[in-house]
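ok trying this again, last paste got cut off
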Amino acid sequence: MTHRQRLSTILVALLAVLGLTAMSATAAVAAPPAQAAAVPGAPITGTFTDAAGGTGTFAGTFTPAKFSAPDGHLLATGTLVGTLTDSTGANVGTVNKSVSAPAAIQATCRILDLTLGPLHLDLLGLVVDLNQVHLTINANSAPGNLLGNLLCAIAGLLDGTPTAGQLAAILNFLLALLGQL
């Protein structure tokens, strides 16, 4: 695997973790051609109501060009390319537009990782044999996950959590590296 493929894989995984959610056509900046070729796109799908009242589909990709953090919220700006298909399966049109999308961070944090070896108990003639047990508890931190958010916050009290601006700077650095390959 080449360095370019490794960095591309890392960036795609990072974008998956960020979980690009809704697309918004506000404050868009076109992607430089060198970066657009080097950075892999994230698949985007959705539905819409077509002219006949049926459900049409959208299938395409979003290729990030830069990240920013206005008002402390992470925002990805890049190019959205895709095809609109109506409920009959006919191609309605294509999209090739610069868009900005909020990047929602969904994190998983390890709460407990416990391994118990095999256990043999003889309690006055009652014999209990337990094979090895591996218990893993993870918490998902995301909007609406109250307990997951709380446990991740407690588990990460001593961690240096980056701000949205710091995360945007890191992601822009990765995009620049991919653009140079």
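PB: full thing came through this time. The helical segments are 3-18, 33-38, 146-155, 164-180.
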